[in-house]
Amino acid sequence: MEAYMTAKEAAEYLKLAERTLVRLAHEGRIPGVKIGGQWRFRRALLDEYLDTMASASVTSAESHANQVIDAPLAEIFTVDNIIPDLTAQDRGDVIHVIVEEVTRLGLVNDPQWLEAALAARERLVPTAVPEGVAFLHARRRSPDKFPRQFIALARSSEGVEFGSPDMGRTRLFFLLALRNDALHLRWLSRLAWIVRNSTRMARLLEAATTDEIYRAMLDAAEALPGSLRPTGRAAGR
Fold first, then answer.
1. Lower CB density within 10 Å: C or N end of the chain?
2. What pTM was estimated for this model as a whole?
3. Residue 112 belongs to a domain with what CATH number?
4. Can you tell me the distance from the alpha carbon of 73 to that of 222, in angstroms, rounded to the nearest whole number?
5. For strand 38-42 and strand 33-35, is the pairing parallel, antiparallel, or unpaired?
6. What is the tens place of the pLDDT at every residue in 109-126?
7. Is 34 helix (H, G, I), strand (E, B) or coil?
């Protein structure tokens, strides 16, 4: 299983000063979690941070990105955004079913683009992590493709081989469609914190109904440490 990096190791990997890395993690701008009072980092999520920064671009649709509010989970994640019994058997099916559902909900303007973008992102570097979770997203934010930003969640009882570094099966699939890179990275950090805890994960996996999954997610979000809580303020690009 992929091990967590210390702050020193992660700073060396990202070519940053350690104090800069810790400050960015504290602000939710780099995905990391605190374990026993010390920051720890997954290499896969640091790679996601590097990829997001490398692919960041400013388009006319993002001209008001600074007006995007870092809102609570309940404002971007509803009970309708949950697929509690995903029956897909492989990576392509997972992506297709999730895209079909968010299209049905009116959350995406161009489902063909989204399906292709998610598949391309997975071919580049799989978004699955050893906790049995994947964080699906398009490589570029492209906010013009979404009427509003959202997070969706699909759960597979059997799990799907999705490219996790430990070769394990993935059971939870988050789809992140945030307005800009800053919010994407903040929510990636928050979700990584939520699923790192075995009790929170068990509650999500064992919930009997969609409402119970939703309640488990809201309770987990309420328990976020201060450094990861939504600010209610405008987020940068």
1. N
2. 0.78
3. 3.40.930.10
4. 9
5. antiparallel
6. 999 999 998 998 888 778
7. strand
